[in-house]
Amino acid sequence: MTNMIALKEWAIVCKALEEGKQILLLRKGGIMEFRKGFEIKHFEFFLYPTYEHQSKESIKDEYKKELETLLSSGYDNNKKYNKNTINLYAKVKDIIEIPDKTKLLNLQNYHIWNQEYVTSRMNYNPSKPLYMLLLRIYKLKDPLVIDVKDEWSGCKSWLDIDIEKNWEDFDSEQYSGKHIMNEKIAENNIVNNKKALIHPVLNEDRFNEIFNHIKEAILVK
Prior knowledge:
By secondary structure, this protein is α+β, with helices and mostly antiparallel strands. The protein is built from seven helices and seven strands. Strands 1, 2, 3, 4, 5, 6 and 7 form a seven-stranded mixed β-sheet that branches.
C-alpha cells in the first residue's frame, strides 16, 4: 500500500482538465495557507473528483449538460459502494495571484466556470488573495478506484490516499508522489511506454500555447 497526496476538485472541472478544456484552477485559502502568508503545500498530486458544492448555476451553459451526464453516469454507483475513481495526476507549472476582477474577465475563455461564480470566489474573504494554479495534467493509464473516507467530506483541500498500484516499480525520483517525472521523459517516453502509468493530456506544444496565452491575459492592463 502506497500513501499519496490528492487535491479535491469538482468532478466537472476534473472532466474539463482531462479533456484539455482548461489547465487552471482557482483557489483562495485552503490549498496554501500558513502563518506568514500563502505557500503551496504540494506541487504534484492526484486530482480527487468531488461532487460536493458543484452546481449547474456555477458553470457556463455549454457545460451544464455534461454535468448532468457526469452525475448520472457513475456517481450513483460509486456512492452506493462508497468508492471514488481517480483518473488524473497534476503538476503545478506556475502559481499567480489574481489582483482584481478585470483579470478574471481576461481569463473567461480558459475555464468552464461562469463569471458570476469566479467573481464570487474573488469576493469571498476579501482580505485573502485569489490564486490561479496552472497545471500540466496527466491521465492515468488505469484509473484508481479507492475507498472513500468519512473524514474527507466537507471543506478540505488535501487528502492522503492509499493506493495499491505498484508506483514503486518506477524510479522513485521520477515516478513517486514527490517527483512524478521530468518533462523530457514525459514527452519522449511516457506515451509510448507500455509500462507507463500516466501520459500527458496535452502535448508539449499545445500546453505551452495555452499556458502562454493565459500568462499574456494576466499581464494585459
